[in-house]
Please model this.
Amino acid sequence: MKRILISVLAVCLATGLVGAQDKNAKPAKAKPAAADCSTTTDAQITDNVKAKIAGTLSLKDQTINVATSAGVVTLTGKVKTSSSKGVATRMAKAVACVKKVDNKCEAEVKTTPPKAKPKNSSSM
Model:
């Protein structure tokens, strides 16, 4: 009798756990293994930055040259907008083992962020 009771209790607990799971929860993404920067060469960093830029749709057709020295990436060339220049900097910084990004690209069109509207102050 005790075995039946324990078995029923175990089955109830197991089904309760399955039912309590969040069906909308996304599985955790596996993080890529951290790169060993002591063995990564500047040429490898340059290749990785070039691949990252080439894989970015907004930078795909733009002329960006990449050079790396001691983990410091220098970007040169022409981009369409200053926004593209910022995107190139972010993409380069996202590459493993990049210590710093020096973006010397020239933007063909200077874009400025929208200006904040002045606050209305009433004078009496």
User: Anything to note?
Assistant: Residues 76 and 105 are 4 Å apart (CA to CA). The chain has a mean pLDDT of 81. Helices lie at 2-20, 42-54, 82-93.
